[in-house]
Amino acid sequence: MSDAYKRVAGERALDYVKDGMVLGLGTGSTVYYTLQKLGRLVQEGLQIKGIPTSKATEVMAKELGIPLTNFREHPVLDITIDGADAVTPKLELVKGGGGALLREKLVAGASKQMIVIVDESKRVDSFDGVSIPVEVVPFAVETTVERIRALGGRPTMRQDGDELFVTDNAHYIVDVTFASVPDVAALHDRLKRLTGVVETGLFPDLASFVIVGSARGVDVVERS
Ligand SMILES: O=C[C@H](O)[C@H](O)[C@H](O)COP(=O)(O)O
């Protein structure tokens, strides 16, 4: 059922899209449904341009005939539509399950609005024990992992089969859990201060609202 919930949320986000907009195109299995419908709308005449948040999304958008642009031409985007791995009632997000967190954060941060699309399984009360992706440089990665451990995290290097997972930006991902995350922004800041950390998958304040797909249809959740 989760795919049906992803579809309903992913498609609903397009109700907010209008002719002439520049869109941030997120990454993942929920955005998949947004892209499929966006491709159909473009074929029917909708005039938009997109900036993809990953190579995978770029490939899919091109296959679907969605016109693409870049930051040089459009440094400010109207709306980014993207998924998430976990969402709290304050609309704090964990992202990066697909490894695209760095470009996703750059694109969302340059957008007037970020619409997050999830199925209801992504709603959590807190990030206690939730796996948080952290993008790190390969050089001295062992040291960076130990520094993350020293902050109280339980880090695991993300694998891709027998190899380490490599992001679109040629970095690694460390998936980290913390037993208790009382302050999401503070944890992001502590991780970000480590020299080997490029970016974290914690998005404390970027979501404008969240569209949640469930058996009830869709709920639009505002920050509480
Ligand atoms: O790196 C991947 C992204 O942050 C995704 O948006 C996130 O992992 C959610 O993906 P999905 O919609 O496949 O659950």
TrEMBL record:
<keyword id="KW-0413">Isomerase</keyword>
<comment type="subunit">
    <text>Homodimer.</text>
</comment>
<feature type="binding site">
    <location>
        <begin position="95"/>
        <end position="98"/>
    </location>
    <ligand>
        <name>substrate</name>
    </ligand>
</feature>
<protein>
    <recommendedName>
        <fullName>Ribose-5-phosphate isomerase A</fullName>
        <ecNumber>5.3.1.6</ecNumber>
    </recommendedName>
</protein>
<dbReference type="Pfam" id="PF06026">
    <property type="entry name" value="Rib_5-P_isom_A"/>
</dbReference>
<feature type="binding site">
    <location>
        <position position="122"/>
    </location>
    <ligand>
        <name>substrate</name>
    </ligand>
</feature>
<feature type="binding site">
    <location>
        <begin position="82"/>
        <end position="85"/>
    </location>
    <ligand>
        <name>substrate</name>
    </ligand>
</feature>
<feature type="active site" description="Proton acceptor">
    <location>
        <position position="104"/>
    </location>
</feature>
<dbReference type="GO" id="GO:0004751">
    <property type="term" value="F:ribose-5-phosphate isomerase activity"/>
</dbReference>
<dbReference type="InterPro" id="IPR037171">
    <property type="entry name" value="NagB/RpiA_transferase-like"/>
</dbReference>
<comment type="similarity">
    <text>Belongs to the ribose 5-phosphate isomerase family.</text>
</comment>
<dbReference type="InterPro" id="IPR004788">
    <property type="entry name" value="Ribose5P_isomerase_type_A"/>
</dbReference>
<dbReference type="InterPro" id="IPR050262">
    <property type="entry name" value="Ribose-5P_isomerase"/>
</dbReference>
<comment type="function">
    <text>Catalyzes the reversible conversion of ribose-5-phosphate to ribulose 5-phosphate.</text>
</comment>
<comment type="pathway">
    <text>Carbohydrate degradation; pentose phosphate pathway; D-ribose 5-phosphate from D-ribulose 5-phosphate (non-oxidative stage): step 1/1.</text>
</comment>
<dbReference type="InterPro" id="IPR020672">
    <property type="entry name" value="Ribose5P_isomerase_typA_subgr"/>
</dbReference>
<dbReference type="GO" id="GO:0009052">
    <property type="term" value="P:pentose-phosphate shunt, non-oxidative branch"/>
</dbReference>
<feature type="binding site">
    <location>
        <begin position="27"/>
        <end position="30"/>
    </location>
    <ligand>
        <name>substrate</name>
    </ligand>
</feature>
